[in-house]
Design goal:
CATH topology: RbsD-like fold
Strand order of the largest sheet: 2-5-1-6-3-4
Shape: globular
Radius of gyration: 14 Å
CATH architecture: 3-Layer(aba) Sandwich
Strand content: 15-25%
Helix content: 25-40%
Number of domains: 1
Order of helices and strands: HEHEHEHEHEE
Number of strands: 6
Length: 149
C-alpha cells in the first residue's frame, strides 16, 4: 500500500500509467469486451485488470492520470449499437468521474467497431469487473506542467 494512491491501482497499472506519454490512449473495458485479444495488439501487449465497477476504476485512474486538453476526443465511450445517443447508467457514472477530473462533458461517442480499432492502437487495456453492457471507455493522456506536482 502507498499513502495517497487509490488502492485499486496495482503495481502493473501504476507502472503502465507512468510509462505512457502525452497522446497515448488508455482503454477501460467491461467484462464483455474482447480485452485479451485486443490488448495483445496494443503497445503494452498485455492485459491489465482491476476487478471493480467501471466508475470506481475511472475514479482511481483519473486520480493520477491527466486527460489531454489539446484534443476533442480525450474521453470517449463506446456507443450503444443502433442507439448512438443513448446514455446508460454506467456511462453517466463514468461521466461524473470525468467531470470531477475536469475532463470533457460530454465524452465523445464512438461507434462499436471504431472503438475496437481505437483500442487496438492504444497503449494499454484495463479490463474491469464491470458487468453492465457498454462499460467501455477511452482516455487520451495529457501532460502535467512543470509547476504541477
Amino acid at each position: 500500500m502507498l499513502k495517497g494512491i487509490n488502492s485499486l491501482l496495482n503495481a502493473d497499472v501504476l507502472y503502465t500509467l507512468r510509462a505512457m506519454g502525452h497522446g497515448d490512449d488508455l482503454i477501460i473495458a467491461d467484462t464483455n469486451f474482447p480485452s485479451d485479444s485486443i490488448a495483445r495488439e496494443t503497445v503494452l501487449g498485455d492485459l491489465l485488470r482491476i476487478d471493480a465497477p467501471a466508475a470506481e476504476v475511472v475514479k482511481a485512474i483519473l486520480s493520477v492520470y491527466p486527460l489531454d486538453t489539446f484534443v476533442d476526443d480525450a474521453a470517449g465511450r463506446m456507443e450503444v449499437v443502433g442507439e448512438p445517443n443513448s446514455i446508460l447508467p454506467v456511462m453517466s457514472e463514468v461521466q461524473s468521474e470525468v467531470n470531477r477530473a475536469g475532463g470533457p462533458n460530454p465524452m465523445i461517442s464512438i461507434e462499436r467497431y471504431a472503438f475496437y480499432e481505437r483500442a487496438k492502437k492504444a497503449y494499454a487495456v484495463i479490463q474491469t469487473g464491470e458487468r453492465r453492457f457498454y462499460g467501455c471507455f477511452a482516455f487520451r493522456k495529457g501532460v502535467i506542467g512543470p509547476e504541477e506536482n
